[in-house]
Amino acid sequence: MDFFSGRISELIEQLAMLPGIGTKTAQRLAFHIVSLPEDKVEKLSRTISETRKHVRYCAECFTLTDSELCPVCRNERRDHGTIMVVETPRDLAAYEKTGKYEGVYHVLHGAISPMLGIGPDDIRLKELMKRLEGDVKEVIVATNSTLEGETTAMYISRLIRPTGIRVTRIANGVPVGGDLENVDEVTLLRALEGRTDL
Amino acid sequence: MDFFSGRISELIEQLAMLPGIGTKTAQRLAFHIVSLPEDKVEKLSRTISETRKHVRYCAECFTLTDSELCPVCRNERRDHGTIMVVETPRDLAAYEKTGKYEGVYHVLHGAISPMLGIGPDDIRLKELMKRLEGDVKEVIVATNSTLEGETTAMYISRLIRPTGIRVTRIANGVPVGGDLENVDEVTLLRALEGRTDL
Description:
Two copies of one chain form a homodimer. By secondary structure, chain A is an alpha/beta fold. The first copy, chain A, has eight helices and six strands. In chain A, a hairpin with a 6-residue loop joins strand 1 (56-57) and strand 2. At the A-B interface, helix 1, helix 2, helix 3, strand 2 and helix 5 of A face helix 1, helix 2, helix 3, strand 2 and helix 5 of B.
């Protein structure tokens, strides 16, 4: 790869180490970056460095943020008695984008996976239980609909049930706007089981 | 997008301005970056900034590099009498990766496009003609197989023909390893026209 120059090749190499960025994309990005005005590139470089330096976990929900509490936990108009449990900050972002959820979150940073040797102590479960000592009415488990996500959901529900706090799970079903013929059988059966009266 | 923090949102925004990076990918990249060890992030940030500062065009072939001449033009073992004309440094990279081309390059930085108002003076054509005053045997036109690339190839061939230097065009045909049924008709016809004796 050294037909450009040491520096450009080095940039391509470093970009290619990012997830989902192959050599070709890294090359495209590198050429784009060197063709940008110098002040824009300085800004990008500085933002990367500064963001990394200041990032931390929200003291309440453990999402990534750059202050003691994240904007959601800081927001007094949110319903702090309803906690949605998600696996990652990206899942939090997905629900925030709907603009309809008014509760707060708890980010586990993973899911229980006996296969990968990830147990209940390796994710932020103790921290969730600690939060339930406060005034919490409902825990909505929104872990992924995968083996690991379901295992985690079951574990959480068993853990919380004795406290008397309501534990719910987001629904499985046919995606809105999706053709039935393109939906897998397990989802179709779940959609049937979860049917509601019209 | 401000449910993380000003800084993380700013990083996502800046990454999303890169070509081919949508909001979701930018988010994934941002989370990856903030989860990396701080020294790795510093290195990435510095490489981006340094590369941009030192990048320039090769004085001979106009590819991007960080010294007066690029590694290809500097290499005395390359055949400097054969010049392959490409649209972008990425095209140069593609041919360099074959490891079989022994000549040098000329990067036009674009192609003639009446539609986009890009004329012969907007790409590095004058610089190509200047190079032909030296000892050049052949110019291989390897612009893209698009309307713009073909227009540029025709223009270059007409420009060079009076000099007596050989001008060739890379072949159109069926991609190696490709199924005929997946190849478009124009390519199939070009492959037929370009057939060679076995």
